[in-house]
Amino acid sequence: MNIIKNKILESVSSVMPIALIVLLLGFTVVPMAVGDLLLFVIGVVFLIIGMSLFTAGSEMSMQPLGAKTGTTIAASGKIWIIAFISFIIGILVTVSEPDLWILAEQVNGLQNEILVYTVSLGVGIFLMIAVLRIVFKVSLTALMLVFYAAAFILSFFVDRSFLCLAFDSGGVTTGPMTVPFIMSIGAGVSASRASADNRDDSFGITGLCSIGPIISVLVLGIISKVEGTYIPEVPEHISNTHDVLGVFSEGLVEHAGSVLVAILPIVVFGALFQLVTRAFSKRQFIRMAIGALYVFVGLTVFLTGANVGFMPTGTVIGSSLSESLGGWLLVPVAMLLGYFIVKAEPSVYVLNKLVESMSAGAISGKTTGLGLSIGVSAALGLSALRIITGIHIMWFLVPGYIIALTLSFFVPKIFVGISFDSGGVASGTMMSAFVLPLCMGACSSLGGDVMTDAFGCVALVAMAPIIAIQILGFSYKIKSARSVRRFIMTNESFIDYGYVDTRLQSRAKKTESTLGGEKK
Q: What's the pLDDT score for residue 520?
């Protein structure tokens, strides 16, 4: 039970800042109905409980299964097996991604299933590419250059009302179901290699999987000539506590069904994997089964809190802020919300833990967390600016990715992978269930086009952390280089006589290794 207690404390520290900000807005510049406020407060409790159970369950079940799957398929040595299993896993975990279904339900003019299966096919293909990249040691930066260039070229042939949806789909795909599994597969495949730089190659798999949906949805838009439309939903009317109980009860039942359908393919895969490989002991397998139950309950509660409690609140806040100071108050509030809301994303915990583990503690979770917060804050500020002014999203995405890809040539390899993964994990459930409705509410009140001005905020959230993390990586590289030089100068006399403290030697080697093996 200690793991659950620790996760609850972590969840409280993550969710409470955003809860306090929203409550402060509700009692000051954004008046809210009592019913909406009550929905939000209960939603906060659901988020804390759900996130705690989900993150605990993910560490117990999905991450070990993903890592073991990666090492097993890599150990087979057969490229067709590695490619085929990666492709199937990519489709299975994406079809089961709740964030994707949330996005699909907010778009009219296109069947939910068509969008979901198109995105899933894109992830399957690009997970296969990402795993083969690790096996054949292909440069992540080179692949990113090629595929983002392809995406921007395709964007010229898609209707503008469908363009933002395509880039948003790349962000929401890498959510709480997808990230733990595919990142662990990358770590497992990377660990099976004997080379010293396998830590660097273990990152970037989520970033590559985020490009697949963008390209596949753009191709869908070109082939079908589809246009995106949006019809605002009528919010639930809450007049008493009985109505609140009814709404949350319906939400729990609805999301329990969707999460069960989502998690079932992964559970079946895990059972078949154990039956064939006997990779886990009986005790480990029971622990994983308990973890899967935690994931099911936690994700059900989390999604209920996000969709029932946070989604209507986001719409109300967006609509109210757009009426203050000509809508310009939306910019600073969106930036403040963005700084804290990313901490409430379940996938962020998975990334931070894996970064600390794979870098042997040289890169802390706090470092990546700071980069994510700064990046998302900037992204939501730009999203608010777009809603007010109607600037085309490509004026932000094209320069943004040019900067991100240019930086990738000047930072340690490990930071390149982490940065592109960060963009994927930052744009998860809270973006779909809170930020996107907030942008929609503001855009509708200002009389803008929701499909071209409100959609696209998830795409910006997926892009900005890539730049922020790489800037931190560049700073880290400079500081580490100075640390190594000071170490050599301070211990020069000891080096001459062979008496260097082994702890100092270890620290210098770890710093040099994290820099990608560069000699300073």
A: 40
Q: Is the pLDDT of residue 122 over 70?
A: yes
What burial letters (b/e) apply to 104-113, b meaning 16+ CB within 10 Å?
bebbeebeee
Which of 138, 141, 130, 28 has its CA nearest to residue 409?
A: 141
Which residues touch 415 (CB under 8 Å, ≥6 apart)?
363, 469, 470, 472, 473, 474, 476, 477
Within-domain flag for 461: yes
Q: How far is CA 303 from CA 131, 393, 433, in A?
A: 30, 29, 9
Put simply, whether the predicted model's pTM sits higher than 0.85 gets the answer no
Looking at 80-121, which runs of residues are DSSP E strands? none
* Residue 344 belongs to domain spanning: 2-228+241-514
Could you please report the per-residue DSSP string of 418-429? HHHHHHHHHSSH
Residue 233 lies in a domain: no
Q: Which helix (H) or strand (E) holds 345?
A: none
Cα 349 from Cα 449, distance rounded (Å): 35
- Closest alpha carbon to 298 in 100, 58, 98, 51: 51
Tell me whether residue 236 is in a domain: no
Q: Residues 269-306: pLDDT tens digits?
A: 889 988 988 888 999 999 999 999 998 998 899 888 88
Closest by CA position to 73, among listed 59, 87, 94? 87
| Cα dihedral 500, 504, 509, 512 sign | negative
The residue type of 434 is F
